[in-house]
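step=encode ok
step=design start
structure_in=
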């Protein structure tokens, strides 16, 4: 599926909130139930699709999937995002003991592959976007984010060896998701937000570029936080879309992003979309649409993942305003 043509085929502003967790309100399930069972998660994604009819469908964002498949210990609360509880890789010898996981067998990778298959079968005419972790972020989970940043200055060879390993993990998982029917992959690289442009290109951007070139497939890069200083370097990765957080002023950076590259964002997922008052939410949506009216390939979205207890009416406002219903 041609991602650009699929999103813009009806000559309207595409609306694709980064939503997954809010669907638990529609299926009366918990986040944990969805992250542990493919059928439950697909039921939730389907409920979101039926309620909002977004212009692309994503499954639930989970940054712990690849780490768990590597054997790292994971905190699994009932109604919050999963997190990695230990970061055991502190040297090259420990790194070399790790094995590349099989996406069809190891950890919960098979669960998300199965959800992707169900999405592909159920929603053939809508783009399906699957998440993979970014290489620098996976290294941060293996070694600890703070240690990884320090190592990027003090133990450069070690970090690059970790990154090469991370890329192989992500390649195989991405292959399985593409085979399952994903129309695009979204690389989640939040740990890279702390890097300078030069360090980003060395420790993240060049590896993201490798992934894009390897897959030769529609790829979106998402980095949380204020990435204003990284926009030119993010463009250099060759990704087909940039998903930018609410800390970035799209009005200020939009002309740094070439035509043909998706700009996805960037309402505040918490203070605006999840918990904002209706008047505030509508005002923010209209302001953002106005700011981006001269960019052909803008996709209205949240700046990051929307919390599970978000006001569903605020999500609905995104569609109603963008589609001229109000």
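sequence_out=
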């Amino acid at each position: 599926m041609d991602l650009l043509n699929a999103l813009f085929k009806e000559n309207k502003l595409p609306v694709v909130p980064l939503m997954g967790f809010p669907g638990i309100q529609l299926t009366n399930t918990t986040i944990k139930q969805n992250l542990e069972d493919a059928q439950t998660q697909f039921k939730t994604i389907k409920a979101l699709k039926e309620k909002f009819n977004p212009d692309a469908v994503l499954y639930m964002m989970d940054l712990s999937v690849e780490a768990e498949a590597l054997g790292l210990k994971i905190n699994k609360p009932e109604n919050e995002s999963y997190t990695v509880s230990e970061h055991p890789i502190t040297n090259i010898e420990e790194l070399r003991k790790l094995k590349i996981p099989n996406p069809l067998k190891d950890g919960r990778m098979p669960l998300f592959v199965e959800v992707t298959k169900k999405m592909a079968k159920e929603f053939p005419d809508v783009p399906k976007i699957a998440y993979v972790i970014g290489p620098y972020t996976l290294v941060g989970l293996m070694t600890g984010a703070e240690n990884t940043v320090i190592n990027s200055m003090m133990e450069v060879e070690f970090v690059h060896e970790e990154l090469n390993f991370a890329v192989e993990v992500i390649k195989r998982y991405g292959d399985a998701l593409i085979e399952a029917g994903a129309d695009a992959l979204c690389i989640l690289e939040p740990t890279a937000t702390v890097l300078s442009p030069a360090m980003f290109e060395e420790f993240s951007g060049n590896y993201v570029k490798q992934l894009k070139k390897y897959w030769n497939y529609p790829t979106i890069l998402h980095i949380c936080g204020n990435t204003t200083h990284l926009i030119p370097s993010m463009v250099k990765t060759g990704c087909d879309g940039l998903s930018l957080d609410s800390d970035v002023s799209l009005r200020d950076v939009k002309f740094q992003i070439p035509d043909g590259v998706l700009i996805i964002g960037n309402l505040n997922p918490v203070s605006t979309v999840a918990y904002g008052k209706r008047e505030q939410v509508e005002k923010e949506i209209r302001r953002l649409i106005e700011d981006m009216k001269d960019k052909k390939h803008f996709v209205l979205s949240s700046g990051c993942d929307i919390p599970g207890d978000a006001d569903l009416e605020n999500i609905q406002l995104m569609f109603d305003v963008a589609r001229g219903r109000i």
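step=design ok
step=annotate ok -> The chain has a mean pLDDT of 97.
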